[in-house]
Amino acid sequence: MKKVLGLILAVALIFTLITIVPTFAFDEVLNIDWVKATDNDGNVIATVYPAQVLWDYYDNVPVLDLVGVSGAIDGGATLFNIVAWYMPEQEMTDIGLRIDGGEIDYDGYCSYQQVLCDAIAGFGAGWENASMTLRIDAYTPIVEGSHTIEVIAKFTDNSTKGIVTFRYRTDNVSSGKTSVEVLNGAVSMRSGFWDPAYATDGIAPVFDGANACALGWYVANPTNASDAKLYIDLEDQYAVNNVSIRPMGWMDGCMFPGTWEILASVDGAAWEQIGSGSGRTGNQTETVSTDVQNVPARYICVHIIEHAGAVIDTNTGYYYSGFGEVDVFGTKIADDDARSIFAPVSNYEKGTAKDNYTGGQEAVGAPSAWTGYTTGDLDFDFSFRTDVSFHSIGFPGFWSYPGTPLEIEFVCDGQSVLIVNYVTGGDAPIVIDLGTTLPKGTYDVTITITDDEMSGEAYKCYMVLGFATEGVLYDDDYCVFERGNVAIDLYSYDSKGVGFVPFDYVEPHVAEKRDFDANAGDGLSYDQILINGSEIANGNAAVIAAKKSIDGSDGSIQTVTLHGWYGNGNSPTAAMGYQINGGTVIYGDFFAATESAVTDLNANNRRFTMEIDVSDLKGENTIWVWAKLENGDEIKLNRFDNKGTANEKDREVYVIYTGPAGVNPPTADASVVIFLVAAAAIALVLLKKKGFNR
To answer: Which of 228, 250, 412, 636 is most exposed, with minimal Cβ within 10 Å?
Structure first.
């Protein structure tokens, strides 16, 4: 029975349009092409509901959850775009939207397209109403909070009917996020239809218009006890206020765990229990909701401790547990650029690096499976970023008609770098030798089928990528299969690296002492010099002339003050400091009030007024100004534009001060050198003494 259900689910997921000619009639059909989140200009930010056919739903209006809305808003989305077509039982006049049960808005959301009607009529018997089909193309604003969008059909007799309802929350922060299973002795029951990724995809396919059949994740043990965990990486830090677990309604929820707990962590090391439950037996269909008080978390873990007691597989006697969806609700409190603790690593002992990541804007909403049944010229695009070179690419979840011709093009930095032709051998994992080694980098890959040979009533060529299924080998440590991403392997001769790297991964910053660099975001102005509190130079030309020689040899100068501004576009300034004769930089709170004309240039620009006590300095001294950034960098303000040219601009922030004759006391750095020399001398004496006594 499980395989039969799995086959039904797989067929419904793969075919987003009707790809076989039915021999039976439909009363009405709604085909959703997609629901996308866009900005005000119509640019697509994310697909929040994939293509799906709702067959013959009679009077049951399906309720579909839009997923990934929170992330789409973060990416700049402001509107939903609903694209679909609807074949009704009776002639329509319009399509409208109703938000949260309010008034129905009819605003040109539908149109009659003869080409579409002809294509549907071409399906044959059972599609007599094809001529009444209307195309739906509607936009509606994304509004913060929890809302519903009803799509309403209006007929020629002025009656109306709801044909689908979309539901969304803007604070669901787990939809579409990475989920990873850690089995701890349990057996994963993933077979292409149940998978860790399905627990966060937010998608519940509708087959008969009444049952929202969420695919999910489940595991098995030979005993009632278990220790299986599902980890979810929210990718940034959130204040979590609710975690809801939805059973797999299409199996009556009978596999919901008997005992479980919910854990939260900011760093993946320290975990806090924020929810738990026990005593679940029998069929469970109600969502389990756990409210918490703004718990800071990047990672959520659902831990199955005991199964519910129902033995599903009478052949093996195994106990099963699982669920359809895990929804985490909250608000972002911090961006987190740290690498996910679940990022796959390379298996270089075998010479292969594996991962499922194909993200980035190019792959948003990309299907993990596609076929050539309805067209003979297909492209499939995906992207990846790697920090190792590679000589072969593999697809561990791969099906095709034997003899299907493929053209695979690799594009790096906008330039086509390699085209490889390959002829498939059938349903089996494949590894394609590129015939060369491609360097590390970011790649856009296009796989094209150009053969239009027919076999019966369907095209002979087809290919499916991305699902793991029974009989396909995979290694959970290195390759996770997800609906929505094509599963790929890279093979490398490199001896180190992490292989696949997430597109949004930011290498940890390593603090450094460096010179001023406009290319690194530095900017400055050196505007004023004061002696004993009185101005001696104001403006660039005057400062350049004065800073090269300030004479205090008569002992009359007690303080020298340097005034200007500095800022870095990538990191705020933590402190300003000065350095005398190459010694230790002395940092302090030298910030001054900053006018808007300066911050308008860069929000991080800040004024400094640095009063330096020079009363003890003897002879000639060079005093430099430094800045310390919040990221730890220390920058010497030695900016000099176009040095040696006619238009050179000496902007270096320093002064050369000459004090009374004499010798300066050792700097802190010099004291260290003196101590080391003295220590070495003492050690030498002790060694000689030891040798003499011997």
So the answer is: 412
